[in-house]
């Protein structure tokens, strides 16, 4: 099989720099999607993706393009998720390609995450086609940005293609560049098949659909297949290509991108990065780079209505079919009853899952503040891994506590270096390096505890730099620190779901902030409610929520009883959203209060 | 939409309504008070003659299918005292012709101090208006300015004096408390000043800051502080004591009267009995044989209202007219719930198990025992020696916590 007419590529771009619009344009120009079926963000099927303007799941599409040289090329565009939480998925998608289009907004310049992804592409020897987008905007500075790209990655500024994905200007040039610059896939057809899984989704009829790039060999629809890492053998229901919809084919050759409907029941058996080979006489070794997705952030998810526990379990189960990175286990809280401790790749992943549970499964979820994984070394020498502050054992049996640290990179205009330094220092971060990207923009590197990173770091970075800074991060390692558990008592009862693990030096300050914030968030009840923060037996802060004195509608205007009833109904409904802890009604926001402890009140 | 097309006229429901009140909404004002979110309009005075004509017509249209005794009438607003006395009388006459008007019917009118002359008051009395509710609101110029009221304290004094001279024996004053920047002393002065005028009835309303009002905007942008609910509670408690000393009986959460001067019209709301609403945005409630009911409201804008009434060709099912914009039927259970949360506003009377049983045929404690036990345990509701259920003094300020249990 001749692969010289195949081109496999991804698009690397920062959120809002126009990746989806460019993809839409490519699909249109190649006639892959008829004008009638054209809509914005074609590749993003999920309602949430469209709303947030960001790709959450990868996808792939095959386009057929007749180039200026008269030949017809098969182009496979592999779309990648647009958030650092999913950088592993991005790396797999890049591995499936020979080239990548780097899209940079000509009004903004290159951003941290884009550069991180770009480095990933360069490590995998991808051919880069640099594009500056949005040249139709009055604020566009395409030449300047092209120079920035040259300075950063050494692509000649003259080779940077200037386009407007919105108007279509310049897009045809990109297609030609793909043909000319990106090499056709290599890989022999006569070796045992090895296909890289770069994403998957669950289909209720065909089981897990693996999105694959055949790196070498051939897969036919009658082959028995084996997934090397998970060591699962299966006979596919069908194999096919994305054209742009799933279209069955008889065989997928080396170099081609397509799908394998595996018939498997969960995506955990078919993980991103795994290798598909033949069941008989298959390859012995998996393709390099496979990692099992590891959750970094954990939160308790509880149904507001205790009766919805089973519904929540079923919903998580369904989401997990499609999301191998999502883990959960049952958790019991004295305050919140029965729920789950759920693990996520990051905060964005958590937000997406929470939103999908609420929207797609119509569940009212109470989420506790996110926490990280701690390694607790006990006096006995055993190491305990905990995912919730409530699990922290009594200090008397603890030798040391280790927490995850992240290496972060921040791109920023130089005038914000001061505020960023302040922010990082406040968050226990450690300075590593600073480098000028050009005369005005700086790359800063730090390490910082993940626990600090997930608590409003990103929002504060954005607000402190008027939105100009961008952030990328990856796991660095575990480090020992002086960490303590901060307990919160509401009406003298410790509330496990409000406990947090903090640095000893921050305990007093955070305890005070938390108490004053809870005092404002917990509505006044019929009785006075004391709120306390304590480390061990030592109470470090206390405030009282005063008893409610006045709550009555004064007047019934001209006999408008209906309006009055509506107000009372609203009040009653609002009450239902509160969680009873002992005799105290506590709103959802209280459980998230720990996320806002650094705000200036 | 004309009511005939939606509901055929069958059993004369009016026969199951023994007596009723009539409420007339006068949606016109010279200026709008800063806290007001009612159905009121300024600069529409040219509509007044047509509007009053429409009111009289609506009364006839509804009355045609009714043989109901009317025990109270109430002109509310808006500013009813903007309406020439003759025009009011046309409506009253229409009532007299269309309904059985009780000989001792209470006929109230809300009046803004500063809009009423001696001769006007004299005419009102002549036409049968026998109760005047005067919007005093405050004794302090600063507070009246905040409210963008056009009157001054002196106007209130003059109005009360003139009303007495004209022969009004039942005068009520409205006051507002819980005003931004108002101190307890400010409030004491307002209430004592009101008492000096020897009213027969007082309505004390905690200021509600409603969305969309200028006052809401000023508080939202920080020009004025939010009313402090605890201070408002102190004001309320002080007023309760002060008025008890002065010989007033508190008969409802916000209402006090000298013996025998409770507002009969408003009592009908709280006892959850019938009242017919006439005019733009007016709400009505007709209770059939005590148990099922219809609540309804007319279109809001006076011009729409006039158009609809003018276009109406025949009667609608009682108690509706073609001006109705919304109506809702309530079954026995809903009427029961309304009876509870409205009736518990009555401080002394509360809910009597005997009256409840006579009305609904059900035992109060069987229907609401669980809720009532909980409220009693929380100290919000009490049982009196004669078995009535009513709010405790603490419950009066926490009424919503009680009422919400019944909706």
Mean pLDDT of chain A: 87
Write down how many β-strands of chain B occur, each being a DSSP E stretch of 2 or more residues.
16
Strand content of chain A: 25-35%
Given as residue ranges, the uncertain stretches of chain A (5+ residues, pLDDT < 50) are none
Residue-averaged pLDDT of chain B, rounded?
A: 93
CATH topology of the largest domain in chain A: Rossmann fold
Instruction: Tell me roughly what share of residues is in helical segments of chain A.
Output: 10-25%
Report on the structure:
The complex is a heterodimer of chains A (601) and B (407). By secondary structure, chain A is α+β, with helices and mostly antiparallel strands. Chain A folds into five domains: 3-181, Rossmann fold; 194-278, Elongation Factor Tu (Ef-tu), domain 3; 297-367, Elongation Factor G (Translational Gtpase), domain 3 (Alpha-Beta Plaits, 2-Layer Sandwich); 375-481, 2-Layer Sandwich (Alpha-Beta Plaits), CATH 3.30.70; 484-593, Elongation factor 4, C-terminal domain (Alpha-Beta Plaits, 2-Layer Sandwich). Chain A is built from 14 helices and 34 strands. In chain A, the strands form seven sheets. An eight-stranded antiparallel sheet of chain A has the order 11-10-16-7-8-15-12-13. In chain A, strands 2-3-1-4-5-6 form a six-stranded mixed sheet, with helices on both faces. In chain A, strands 22, 23, 24, 25, 26 and 27 form a six-stranded antiparallel sheet that branches. In chain A, strand 5 (127-133), helix 5 and strand 6 (161-162) form a beta-alpha-beta unit. The relative contact order of chain A is 0.08. The mean pLDDT of chain A is 87. With 407 residues, chain B is of the alpha/beta class. Chain B has helices spanning 48-63, 85-98, 118-126, 141-146, 153-166, 184-196, 214-220, 229-245, 264-270, 302-311, 332-343, 353-360, 364-377, 393-397, 399-403; strands at 19-26, 28-29, 41-42, 69-77, 100-111, 131-137, 171-177, 201-206, 249-252, 255-257, 275-278, 283-288, 292-298, 324-330, 381-383, 389-391. In chain B, the strands form four sheets. Chain B has a nine-stranded mixed sheet with strand order 9-10-8-7-6-5-4-1-11, with helices on both faces. The two termini of chain B are 30 Å apart. The interface between A and B is medium-sized, with 24 and 40 residues.
């Amino acid at each position: 099989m001749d692969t010289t007419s195949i081109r496999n590529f991804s698009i690397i771009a920062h959120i809002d720099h126009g990746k989806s619009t460019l993809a839409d344009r490519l699909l249109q120009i190649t006639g892959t999607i008829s004008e009638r079926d054209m809509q914005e963000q074609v590749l993003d099927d999920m309602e949430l993706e469209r709303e947030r303007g960001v790709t959450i799941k990868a996808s792939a599409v095959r386009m057929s393009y007749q180039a200026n040289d008269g030949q017809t090329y098969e182009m496979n565009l592999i779309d990648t998720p647009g958030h650092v939480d999913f950088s592993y998925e991005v790396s797999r998608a890049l591995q499936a390609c020979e080239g990548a289009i780097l899209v940079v907004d000509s009004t903004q310049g290159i951003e941290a995450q884009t550069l991180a992804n770009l480095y990933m592409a360069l490590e995998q020897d991808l051919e880069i086609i640099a594009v500056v987008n949005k040249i139709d905007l009055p604020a566009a500075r395409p030449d300047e940005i092209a120079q920035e790209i040259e300075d950063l990655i050494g692509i000649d500024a003259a080779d940077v293609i200037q386009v407007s994905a919105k108007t279509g200007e310049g897009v045809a040039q990109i297609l030609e560049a793909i043909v000319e610059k990106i090499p056709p896939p290599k890989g022999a057809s006569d070796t045992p098949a090895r296909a890289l899984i770069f994403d998957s989704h669950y289909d209720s009829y065909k089981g897990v659909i693996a999105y694959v790039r055949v790196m070498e060999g051939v897969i036919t629809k009658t082959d028995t297949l084996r997934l090397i890492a998970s060591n699962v053998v299966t006979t596919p229901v069908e194999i096919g290509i994305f054209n742009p919809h799933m279209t069955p084919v008889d065989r997928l050759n080396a170099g081609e991108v397509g799908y394998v409907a595996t018939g498997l029941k969960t995506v955990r058996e078919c993980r991103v990065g795994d290798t598909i080979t033949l069941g008989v006489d298959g390859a012995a070794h998996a393709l390099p780079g496979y990692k099992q997705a590891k959750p970094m952030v954990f939160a308790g998810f509880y149904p507001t209505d205790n009766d919805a526990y089973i519904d929540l379990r079923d919903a998580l189960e369904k989401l997990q079919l499609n999301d191998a990175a999502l883990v959960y286990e049952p958790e019991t809280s004295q305050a919140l009853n029965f729920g789950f401790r759920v693990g996520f790749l990051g905060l964005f992943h958590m937000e997406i899952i929470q939103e999908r549970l609420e929207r797609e499964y119509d569940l009212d979820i109470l989420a506790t503040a996110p926490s990280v994984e701690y390694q607790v070394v006990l006096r006995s020498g055993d190491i305990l891994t905990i995912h919730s502050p409530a699990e922290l054992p009594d200090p008397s049996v603890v030798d040391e506590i280790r927490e995850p640290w992240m290496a972060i990179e921040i791109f920023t205009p130089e005038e914000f270096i001061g505020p960023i330094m302040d922010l990082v220092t406040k968050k226990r971060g450690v300075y590593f390096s600073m480098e000028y990207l050009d005369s005005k923009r700086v790359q800063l590197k730090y390490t910082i505890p993940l626990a600090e990173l997930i608590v409003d770091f990103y929002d504060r970075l954005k607000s402190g730099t008027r939105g100009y800074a961008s952030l990328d991060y990856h796991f660095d390692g575990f480090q020992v620190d002086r960490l303590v558990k901060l307990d919160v008592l509401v009406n003298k009862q410790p509330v496990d779901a409000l406990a947090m693990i903090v640095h000893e030096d921050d305990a007093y300050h955070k305890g005070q902030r938390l108490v004053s914030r809870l005092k404002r968030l917990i509505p006044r009840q019929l009785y006075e409610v004391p709120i306390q923060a304590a480390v061990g037996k030592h109470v470090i802060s206390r405030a009282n929520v005063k008893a409610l004195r006045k709550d009555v509608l004064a007047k019934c205007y001209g006999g408008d009883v209906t309006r009055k009833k509506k107000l009372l109904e609203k009040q009653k409904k609002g009450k239902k959203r509160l969680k009873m802890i002992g005799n105290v009604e506590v709103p959802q926001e209280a459980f998230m209060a720990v996320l806002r402890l650094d705000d200036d009140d | 939409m004309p009511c005939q097309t939606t509901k055929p006229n069958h059993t004369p429901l009016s026969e199951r309504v023994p007596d009723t009140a009539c409420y007339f909404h006068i949606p016109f004002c010279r200026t709008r008070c800063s806290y007001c979110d009612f159905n009121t309009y300024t600069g529409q005075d040219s509509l007044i003659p047509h509007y009053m004509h429409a009111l009289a017509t609506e009364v006839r249209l509804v009355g045609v299918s009714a043989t109901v005794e009317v025990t109270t009438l109430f002109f509310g607003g808006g500013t009813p005292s903007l309406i020439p006395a003759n025009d009011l009388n046309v409506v009253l006459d229409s009532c007299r012709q269309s309904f059985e008007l009780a000989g001792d019917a209470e006929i109230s009118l809300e009046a803004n101090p500063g809009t009423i002359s001696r001769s006007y008051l004299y005419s009102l009395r002549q036409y049968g208006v026998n109760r005047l509710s005067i919007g005093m609101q405050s004794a302090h110029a600063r507070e009246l300015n905040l409210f963008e009221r056009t009157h001054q304290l002196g106007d209130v004094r003059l109005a009360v004096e003139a009303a007495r001279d004209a022969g009004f024996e039942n005068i009520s004053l409205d006051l507002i408390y819980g005003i931004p920047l108002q101190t307890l002393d400010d409030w004491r002065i307002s209430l004592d000043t009101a008492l000096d005028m020897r009213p027969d009835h007082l309505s004390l309303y905690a200021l509600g800051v409603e969305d969309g009002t200028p006052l809401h905007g000023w508080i939202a942008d920080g020009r004025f502080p939010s009313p402090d609910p605890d201070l408002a509670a102190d004001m309320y408690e002080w007023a309760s004591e002060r008025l008890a000393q002065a010989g007033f009986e508190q008969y409802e959460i916000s209402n006090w009267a000298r013996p025998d001067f409770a507002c009969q019209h408003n009592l009908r709301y709280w006892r959850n009995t019938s009242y017919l609403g006439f005019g733009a945005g007016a709400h009505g409630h007709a209770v059939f044989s005590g148990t099922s009911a219809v609540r309804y409201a007319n279109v809001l804008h006076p011009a729409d209202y006039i158009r609809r009434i003018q276009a109406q060709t025949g009667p609608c099912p009682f108690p509706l007219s073609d001006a109705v914009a919304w109506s809702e039927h309530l079954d026995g259970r809903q009427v029961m719930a309304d009876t509870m949360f409205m009736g518990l506003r009555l401080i002394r009377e509360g809910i009597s198990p005997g009256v409840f049983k006579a009305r609904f045929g059900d035992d109060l404690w069987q229907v609401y025992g669980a809720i009532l036990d909980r409220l009693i345990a929380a100290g919000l509701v009490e049982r009196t020696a004669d078995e009535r259920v009513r709010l405790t003094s603490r419950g009066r300020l926490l009424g919503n916590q009680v009422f919400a249990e019944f909706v």
